[in-house]
Amino acid sequence: xxxxxxxxxxxxxxxxxxxxxxxxxxxxxxxxxxxxxxxxxxxxxxxxxxxxxxxxxxxxxxxxxxxxxxxxxxxxxxxxxxxxxxxxxxxxxxxxxxxxxxxxxxxxxxxx
Length: 112
Hints:
Distance between the termini: 40 Å
Radius of gyration: 13 Å
Number of helices: 0
Structural class: mainly beta
Shape: globular
């Protein structure tokens, strides 16, 4: 059974940090690029960050460049999104995506 399970979301104050994890199972995670998306209430889903299967090339949305870092550990079938200097506009449900598979999402709320 294919699964992508996100964790690590929560409530954080502006300027704070969170680390999201995405645990993959049931398919060859290490052969495919991985992406993190987010969707804020009332808005469309936005691509936040991408990483190649080797982990050597990453891309980021302009809004998160310099604050977010995507990474992966293929030995653990897990991807990560380290988020620093969080802003209220980063509030959204964050989803990991690999191939055609999606996780259930994890809520990130940035508020004082």
